[in-house]
Amino acid sequence: MKLNKLLAAFACIVLAAGALAADKLAVAEPVGKGGVPASDIEAFWGILESSIQSDEYTLVSRGALNQIMTEIGLTTSSDLVNLNSTQKAKLGKLEGVKYILVSEVSKFGSRLNCTMRIMDATTGEIDQARTANLRVKDLDELADQIEAALQKLLSDDKALHRSAILAPVIKVRAPGYLADDFNVRLENEMLDKGLRLQNLQSVAKILKKNDMDNLNELEPKMYVKAGKLLEVEMLIQATITRFEIEKISYNVAETGASGFRYIGNIEGSVRIISAQTGETLGSVPFDERVDFRSIPISTRRDWTVDDYGKHLIKTVIPQKIIPGIMKSPAFKDKAETKAEEKKPAAEKPVADTTMLEAVEE
Description:
This protein has twelve helices and eleven strands. The chain has two domains: about 20-160, 3-Layer(aba) Sandwich (Rossmann fold); about 165-355, ABC-type transport auxiliary lipoprotein component (Rossmann fold), CATH 3.40.50.10610. The chain has helices at about 1-20, 40-50, 60-70, 85-95, 140-155, 155-160, 180-190, 200-210, 220-230, 295-300, 305-325, 355, and strands at about 25, 30-35, 55-60, 100-110, 110-120, 125-135, 165, 170, 235-250, 260-275, 280-290. The protein is an alpha/beta fold. It is elongated, with a radius of gyration of 28 Å.
């Protein structure tokens, strides 16, 4: 009886270990283009294999991968990204590997461009969301960046569903702070809603390095290129067609009081762009007019025009733009669970403030 229990317990342990076993990952021989030496490709292949440091994956030997490729009729690793339906079906039936890392190293002038992608061996399909692009000056710099790139490639799907906020397109004369203040506020509010974003500073640095820091209503293929460089699923870009702080004079005949008040106007839209196709998935228009008399005089007594402008951004993004983004099908179910938002306090009547306020020019 005791022996049977021990055997049953041992069987459970074996089954559990099998269920928890790491997925098997094969690293295909990198494809070299543009005159990259075979010795560099071999060195890069070794770097890739030695950089796989994840408990979620077990590395498959080169021999095992070659056998798999032979069974589905392939001779070189470059054929892996162009499988026909028959080859995909055969690959899905083979056991021994779940994912294949395919890569390409090209030489353009004095620089190297490396693309790495993850193929699901059970379907033969390339996972477009799991793609990394590196542009470096030489193999040494590529080796320095490879570990971080692989970490992103081999992370779980949840970590890959990120977006990047691009610099806004400003079509009117505007203060210098507008672009940065708008994007920083937009980033903070989206993060607060649980959306995953590439850091703004990283986005600017990567795009500038690749001479793409002025993305302004470009063709879809350019947005696709930007998405690959940033390794994101979606791109967010605002277009601002009006940004104005009006200074309106007033006179109250009954009291003789005179002065001026400020009104803020902002108009434009926020586009949500697919990083895979470059097509617009949704657009959130905004056209808001804010009367600053709702703010206590004691708070804004020493405000400058720029202070009013920054408050306009601070008001419109969370109240008007973010709700529109969250309702967009592109972001449906992508936000993490958050605590119920606090409702803004009701605004107090401001009917008498114009008679009380008298500001000198």
